[in-house]
């Protein structure tokens, strides 16, 4: 830290969501001078911005939080098995207060550029207002879904009613009562939104391009007694997360689908279907994710579940995905989504049959109809994973731009670092383990903190991976993805966003393998005392 005295900070952290908050806590524990720069007016990141009605975890609340502090686990009480957004935000506020993090967070500060300074080996960050900040290291903690994208439809600016993206929901939505509302999109966000807002609006029209698989969440309240039991079970819960493929508590069935009789199979699937949470996604046999026939059978099982819930058989077929199998895109969990469509005031417009031609001043003009709305909601997703990086002008050694480095495909080492962008660590960067996000965040932040401790003790002022290491990481991640049906489908997980010119083709976006394998690789790099990196 002596060597950094002329700099404003040892470490600058961009973003005050879970990644940034925990980074700040860990970095401060090392005695380093740190600051979090956050664009929003308060902490919470994803859980600050996404406050649409119905926003909630679809992972068990007590598995989807920080595990590092026994005190925090003891003091916090969850009231629902799948926490709604307001409670999650309160948890984050509680955490922030408990560890006195706010004094080192600067809100309302949107970083516009980040330039690596060589000579000097430090970073220079500039915010929107032109204010500058210097530090030896930077940690990007910007989130994987934080740049909302609007649909590319002519006339989006013409609409004279109220319109917003789900990630920019107005604080007060009492204005929806009795209104004629249209919603575009049927992804995870839309599914959670639709199943809530149909209860308050006058009419709801859902514009669907691709139906998604979704299955019952089966949320329930947590009593005080149950919470006491959960507290006792925390070590066991986190151990389960540690051992599982993607850090969830659900255990994959070790049997092969083809080895099971039809009776056995359907009895098992029915059992999983009745359970709360991701069991129906994660506790089936692993071959459902790779074997076409297994996947087809399981998809058909779910299609029949949908058919049983939708009164109109023609409508039911429209709501059943035909071009991608169950689990090949992120499966959100629902509470009454299908029942919404049985209501006379809710209508589905399949835009493959009746395309949207333009947004007008009064609503939406489809090929066949002129529809009028008071409110238009865009549940149209995000410029995922790399979008946060695209929003900042990252400049590395020799004026190299990060967007150029990644233009032909994302390159990273461990999903944590990039060559030519020294002293920069990414939390939830591309090619990093996603799965249970808080579990992945905790691991990545701990790994980075361990490195910073090493750097502090060994007076390291420069760190970057080599091209060779990035190439081998890319091949490793690519190899792990072979045979995954999910990688044959367009989604934000495979780097596709049809509303963005640069994201029309699939690319390698996330780490494709099991979390224990990811951690093994990263642990080995640490055990080698970071000799995989160029250190200076
Ligand atoms: P998603 O999953 O990217 O969903 C976006 C939805 O919006 C999806 O149904 C899209 O259809 C639809 N969309 C996007 N653009 C258009 C246009 N131009 N016309 C019609 N429909 C469109 O984002 P979410 O916010 O729902 O979820 C993101 C993640 O957040 C989720 O996985 C959770 O982990 C939390 P498409 O499928 O592209 O045909």
Automatic annotation (TrEMBL):
Q: To which species is this protein native?
A: Schizothecium vesticola
What's the name of the protein?
Phenylacetone monooxygenase
InterPro entries for the chain: FAD-binding_Monooxygenases (IPR050775), FAD/NAD-bd_sf (IPR036188), Flavin_mOase-like (IPR020946)
Give this protein's Gene Ontology molecular function annotations: flavin adenine dinucleotide binding; N,N-dimethylaniline monooxygenase activity; NADP binding
**Keyword Magnesium attributed:** no
Keywords for the protein's UniProt record, in alphabetical order: FAD, Flavoprotein, Monooxygenase, NADP, Oxidoreductase
